[in-house]
Design a protein that fits this description.
Blueprint lengths: L2 E3 L2 E3 L10 E7 L3 E2 L4 E10 L8 E8 L4 E2 L2 H4 L2 E4 L5 E3 L7 E9 L5 E7 L15 E3 L6 E2 L3 E3 L3 E9 L3 E4 L9 E2 L3 E9 L6 E6 L4 E3 L3 E4 L2 E7 L22 E25 L2 E2 L2 E2 L2 E14 L3 E9 L16 E3 L7 E7 L3 E3 L1 E8 L5 E8 L4 E3 L2 E12 L1 H4 L1 H8 L24 E5 L7 E13 L9 H12 L1 E5 L3 E2 L5 E2 L8 E2 L2 E2 L4 E3 L13 E5 L7 E7 L12 H4 L11 H7 L4 E2 L6 E13 L15 E9 L2 E2 L12 E2 L2 E14 H6 L1
Parallel strand pairs: 4-13, 14-27, 15-31, 35-50
Antiparallel strand pairs: 1-2, 3-5, 5-10, 6-7, 6-9, 6-11, 8-10, 11-12, 15-22, 16-21, 17-23, 18-20, 18-23, 19-22, 23-26, 23-27, 24-25, 28-29, 29-34, 30-33, 31-32, 31-45, 34-36, 36-46, 37-42, 37-47, 38-39, 40-41, 43-46, 44-46, 47-50, 48-49
Length: about 675
């Protein structure tokens, strides 16, 4: 009969007389991961009647390099009954000595070789087959951990354990025979229950066989779960590693051991030789006795290491380069563009993670909450264009042309009475005081804003747009230093403010009208606003939802992707390629791009109300000017308030009026 250890054949038993020293591995891991602390133990026994001190040698070899492990490089340590790799060992009968060696697993298989009383001389020994142990080729193997990817939640595993045979034999007794089946079991244990989940042992029935050789080849299934490494993003327990390139490592251990037994019977014979009639008469007797033969399965551990890779996103994404400025922000530019960013809109993200089957196929994908809420930030803008719809030159053109041609047709002088004197035609706008001079002109501006909101305004003007339009309306100014007479015969400026007399005339005082303060001479409202935000024909609104998806592999609008990790648009495309990490917009969240355009017209004296200049207005040059004041954005409740100051239009429209003489000159002539 031959014996084995870890399927390694051992020389057959030699049934010869004499005492014996034997050695066997007690603890011998079949494999280990680089960096693991490995312990191997050996049991030595002796059947010599008195204490013996045989010599021994223990070699621990790095197979790749062909060198012995050392304390300095491999943390080699001896324990139990020994303190060094060679020496002598004191062993007494009926006792056993335990030897131990430990080391840090190198990047190589490790071979363990042990010899005791190898030459069989001290003490003299005939059976030497059990004095030598060699772990090669089965142990200790370098085990490469299985890598578990960044986006995996769990993995099902199926492991075939080594085939294991226990061999029974009848003892060398008279008429020995089996009397029943072999019974017993090969037990398989999960020694890392917090790692090897849903542990099941298959193909390993209890032993109940009419056989001397019993073989079992168990199959084990279990599940590796991410949360057992400390990372549970599905339940919002995110683990953040300083270096996501370095995995979390754990090793599962499956230990197996067992034995079988089988009953047998044998005969015991003896003779009884009584003296009968002086003669010895011998009779052979027998009895049937029973016994139990036992055999062990090999015991060992199977180690399965796993490297779990963990990455749960970056807290802050790279800042996007948005404009925060006003282009062409000068007092003479009639086209300006404001740029700012919207008030950040927080939104939640998800990522997709999967479960793996035994073959490594990805399936059963699950939405997993992202660790960090993101903020939707985009470029907002307002384009402002100013235009003169009808200039003062145009408004007064008919009357000026009539005066130049000396026409005396009153309807031709619709808005002002210009002097017809030949010597006054050298002036652009010559008048004589005392006649009517009606303010006139029409001016427009358009505002086109683009803003982002998390709600559809449903056709209602957004506050951002309306408030900017109103601020621009309020910046309109009509200004002149012409002198008028009101119904109370007072000399006033256009704003109906009384003028101070001076030398038969009056001191000039400019009057300025605004939309907020538009009452002129005789408290007449001289400015009319046609506000597009209140006139559907002059206001348009376009609402576009910024498309997003939570579908795996789906494509959201670039505006979203700029604010999520895992996309080149946000400068984080490497997170997807390196860490399998890509964010999607959690369903139920919406962003709308709202484009609004308003045209505003400001008419000066739209009903052509006549205003009379004061007959005592001194001769000289007077001006009329339309302009837009600067708009102070600071203090407004919208994000464009950070732009501080929007420059107006210093001179939107203007004319110079020359006063020479008065209406009394004409009456006297």
């Amino acid at each position: 009969m031959s014996s084995t250890y870890l399927d390694i054949p051992i020389a057959p038993f030699i049934n010869s007389p004499g005492s014996d020293i034997s050695a066997e591995f007690e603890d011998l891991p079949s494999g280990a991961v680089v960096g693991d602390e490995v312990t191997v133990s050996i049991i030595v026994r002796s059947t010599f009647p008195s204490k013996v001190t045989p010599s021994y040698s223990l070699e621990v070899i790095n197979k790749n390099e062909g060198r012995a492990l050392t304390k300095e490089k491999d943390n080699l340590q001896f324990g139990g009954a020994i303190t060094s790799a060679t020496g002598s060992l004191s062993v007494e009968k009926t006792s056993k000595r335990r030897l131990a060696v430990s080391f840090t697993m190198p990047e190589s298989d490790v071979r363990i070789k042990f010899k005791i009383n190898a030459d069989g001389k001290y003490p003299e020994e005939k059976q030497l087959y059990n004095n030598v142990l060699d772990s090669d080729p089965l142990a200790v193997k370098l085990v490469t951990p299985q890598s578990l990817p960044y986006d995996m939640l769990s993995k099902k595993v199926r492991v075939k354990l080594p085939s294991n045979t226990a061999t029974l034999s009848l003892p060398g007794l008279p008429d020995a025979k089996w009397t029943g089946p072999a019974t017993g079991s090969l037990e398989v244990y999960n020694r890392t229950e917090d790692l090897l989940r849903d542990f099941e042992v298959l193909n390993n029935p209890k032993v109940n066989e009419e056989s001397e050789s019993i073989t079992r080849s168990p199959i084990v299934t279990y599940t590796i779960k991410r949360e057992d490494f400390g990372d549970d993003p599905l339940n919002k327990n995110w683990l953040n590693l300083k270096n996501p390139d370095e995995p979390l490592s754990r090793t599962g251990e499956i230990f197996y051991m067992g034995s079988v037994s089988r009953p047998y019977e044998y005969k015991r014979y003896w003779q009884e030789c009584p003296i009968v009639e002086g003669k010895e008469v011998c009779t052979t007797h027998s009895e049937t006795l029973s016994g139990t033969a036992t055999a062990k399965f090999n015991s060992d551990s199977v180690f399965n290491p796993y490297d779990m890779y963990v990455y749960n996103g970056m807290k802050e994404l790279p800042k996007q380069d948005f404009k925060k400025m006003i282009e062409n922000n000068s007092g003479n530019s009639r086209s300006k563009t404001m740029y700012w960013v919207n008030k950040p809109i927080p939104f939640e993200v998800i990522r997709w993670m999967h479960h793996q089957d035994e073959q490594g196929n990805k399936g059963n994908w699950a939405q997993v909450p992202g660790q960090y809420p993101r903020e939707f930030i985009q470029q907002e803008s307002a384009k402002i264009n100013y235009n003169v719809a009808s200039s003062m030159d145009n408004e007064y053109g008919q009357a000026r042309d009539a005066a130049a041609k000396k026409k005396n047709v009153k309807p031709q002088y619709d808005k002002a009475v210009f002097a017809t004197d030949r010597d006054l035609q050298k002036y652009d706008y010559p008048i004589k005081s005392g006649y009517y001079f009606n303010p006139a002109g029409s001016y427009t501006f358009t505002v086109k804003t683009v803003v982002f909101k998390d709600k559809d305004p449903g056709g209602k003007v957004t506050d951002d747009h309306r408030d900017l339009v109103n601020a621009l309306i309020d910046s309109f100014r009509y200004e002149t230093d012409l002198m008028f007479i009101n119904n109370n015969k007072d000399a006033v400026n256009i704003h109906n403010e009384q003028l101070t007399p001076k030398g038969g005339g009056f001191v000039r005082q400019k009057g300025v009208l605004s939309v907020q303060d538009n009452k002129g001479v005789n408290e007449v409202e001289l400015l009319q606003v046609v506000d597009g935000t209140k006139d559907p024909s002059k206001y348009t609104q376009k609402v576009e939802e910024v498309k997003s998806t939570d579908k795996r592999g789906g494509d959201s609008d670039k505006f979203w992707k700029m604010m999520m990790e895992g996309y080149s648009d946000s400068g984080t495309g490497s997170s997807n390629t390196k860490y399998n990490y890509r964010e999607y917009v959690k369903v139920g969240q919406h962003i709308y791009k709202i484009t609004e355009t308003t045209e505003v017209t400001i008419n000066v004296n739209p009903f052509n109300i006549p205003l009379y200049t004061h007959a005592n207005m001194p001769n000289g040059n007077y001006s009329i000017k339309v302009w837009f004041d600067d708009t102070k954005l600071t203090g407004m409740k919208h994000m464009y308030s950070n732009l501080d100051l929007l420059k107006g239009i210093a001179d939107m429209d203007s004319i110079n009026v020359t006063v020479v003489g008065s209406m009394f000159d004409d009456l006297n002539n």
